[in-house]
Amino acid sequence: MIKLGDQLPRYLLEKHQIWTTVVYTALFSLVFILISIPFSQNAWFELGASEAFFYTLAFILISALIIILSRALLHRCRTLKNFSILAYSLWVVGEVVAVSLLYTFFTVEGTQLGVIHPYLRNAGAVFLSAMVYSAVCLCVPFALSSLGFALQDKDNTIRLMNYGNVVSDKPAVPYSDKRITLFDNNGVLKFSISSDNLYFIESDDNYIKAWYMDSGGEMKQYMLRCRLKTVEDSFADSELVRCHRKYIVNIRKISILKSEKDGYRVDFDIDSVDPIPISKTYEQAVLARFNSR
Questions:
Q1: Tell me: the pLDDT tens digits for 13-70?
Q2: CB 246 within 8 A of CB 202
Q3: d(CA 194, CA 126)
Q4: Can you give the pTM of this predicted structure?
Q5: What is the rounded distance in angstroms from the CA atom of residue 212 to the CA atom of residue 204?
Q6: Where are the alpha helices (DSSP H) in 77-120?
């Protein structure tokens, strides 16, 4: 059961998801406004060549700018470990209030300037009406896009754990054959390697880089479009351990565990690979796994 205090799924704060939601919200709002104008008692939007049209255009552009800036700031919150569903919900409410206040301001000022002639002239009534329309225009597409991303994330996780469809010279069984098999976000098998040769996986925005040792003893990396969280969830019982928001390491390939003044670091004793930091969030879990290996 989902609770408001639960941590917000990180995939909702990724750059691709953020901007997809913004575009989807803009399209949904435009269609909704066009459909609802004839039924609204306080709508002054006009699309024809008139002074009110430029007033309408100004409101739409400023509203879009508010949402874009808000979502850009929201994307920066992806690093906060305690950013909860409640915090996200309050954030959305704040966006609704901001757009509603902007609409109220435009309505009052436009009425005084004679640019628009709404039926409702009381600022309080205008604001309450705007809250209803803003809530629909923002909350509905936010909810639908979040549901779509959740289903996509679940599907990616299931695909990543499904070894039955992998073409191989022998049945691929997770962990028992010590192989790490990675699919991209479209469910296409992209990378399969023995866990003895995989050292760590690094997050690079919506991509990951798998660092591994090839048959010639050379350190290489393979990049594919996949979320680090998906890898973490799918290989929770393997040698792969999350140590940082950007890294998952193979606990059995760590040569040295360093304790420094700014925290722990893991070293693979390979010249071409720098030590990897362990964040406070994952420190105890990594230490426990390292000591029990």
A1: 777 778 888 888 888 888 887 787 666 655 677 666 567 778 888 888 999 999 999 9
A2: yes
A3: 64
A4: 0.55
A5: 16
A6: 85-113
